[in-house]
Amino acid sequence: MGSEGPEGFPADGEGPVRAVTLDPFYIDRYAVTNHRFRQFVEAAGYLTDAERLGWSFVFAGHLQDSGASAQAVPHLHWWRRVDRADWRHPEGPDSGIASREAHPVVHVSWNDANAYALWAGKRLPTEAEWEYAARGGLEQKLYPWGDELTPGGRHLCNLWQGEFPTHDTAEDGYSAPAPVDAFPPNGYGLFNIAGNVWEWCQDWFSPDYHLLATRTNPIGPPDGGAKVMKGGSYLCHASYCNRYRVAARTCNTPDSSTTNAGFRCVRDP
Predict the structure, then answer these.
(1) CA 131 to CA 139: how far, in whole Å?
(2) Where are the alpha helices (DSSP H) in 121-237?
(3) Owning domain of residue 217
(4) Quick check: is 57 in a domain?
(5) Residue 238 lies in a domain
(6) Which of 11, 122, 152, 220 makes a 20 to 30 Å CA pair with 211?
């Protein structure tokens, strides 16, 4: 796992390239959908972090309610803190998910994802498990399908095309999260493992913990301030964030939620 290529972000701790040994595991073919998350919420009486806080982060270009309270985020002007945005109302209080049952649930924090996984008898993947599964049997390729982003001009994931953040040409067919099965699966049968929505992992984030940590079933540092996220999202663009590569990584605090973050689960045999 890992990467040392020029396209990477050394400060993120993508390298060095290293051999990691993992025990067998099962992983969901799809990110958790709105339909499945609704079943969890109704069965468990669960309230997400965004619902408790009363707001979440929405991409400014997708705001549907001109009357919604939307506070700009300093230095990241394409994000808005929107009151009453949550998994049921992805773009603000006047939006809904009635036509998006097969779309990935978003506005879920790490806490929310972990709670769902426990309810489902599963768990969140470690970063090493996620990366192994995302590679689909390929070794040291940039993407789950190889080294070329659009082989033969064919789009294989949901990313931003055009000029970020002002104009998305949606050449891949989507300018927002796509259904969880929208693109062909990788070599292990996993759908939308690159792009579409960021996926939470079990590990606390560190740019250097792995340098001295075990290479057998690594699980990251014992504590920290943010959790690992992998895979990139529909808002990723090569001009500022090409973290849709398999080895790329980012993080967010466990109670944070956004319009481009979801998750999938794993379980042990």
Answers:
(1) 11
(2) 127-135
(3) 1-46+104-269
(4) no
(5) yes
(6) 122
Contact 233, 195 (CB under 8 A): yes
- Token digits of residue 165: 């953040």
Please check whether residue 192 is in contact with residue 172, taking contact to mean a CB–CB distance below 8 angstroms. no
pTM: predicted TM-score of the whole model, two decimal places: 0.96
Polymer length of the chain = 269
User: Is residue 173 left, alpha or beta, with left meaning phi > 0 and alpha meaning psi from -120 to 50?
Assistant: left
- Contact (Cβ atoms closer than 8 angstroms) between residue 35 and residue 102: yes
* Closest residue by Cα to residue 79 from 194, 233, 210, 187: 233
Residue 67 has pLDDT above 60, yes or no: no
For the CA atoms of 14, 16, 19, 22, the dihedral, rounded to the nearest 10 degrees, stands at -30
Number of structural domains the chain divides into: 1
Query: What's the rounded Cα separation, in Å, for the pair 130 and 117?
Result: 15
pLDDT greater than 80 at residue 194: yes
Burial class (CB in 10 A: 0-12, 13-18, 19+), 207: middle
Q: Give the mean pLDDT of 31-50.
A: 98
- Looking at the DSSP bridge assignments, the partners of residue 246 are none
Is residue 241 classed as helix, strand or coil in its secondary structure? coil
User: Smallest Cα–Cα separation from 257: which of 198, 172, 183?
Assistant: 198
The pLDDT of 173-188, averaged and rounded, is: 97
Does residue 54 lie within any of the structural domains? Answer: no
**Strands 198-204 and 162-163, how do they pair?**
unpaired
C-alpha radius of gyration, the chain, whole number:
18
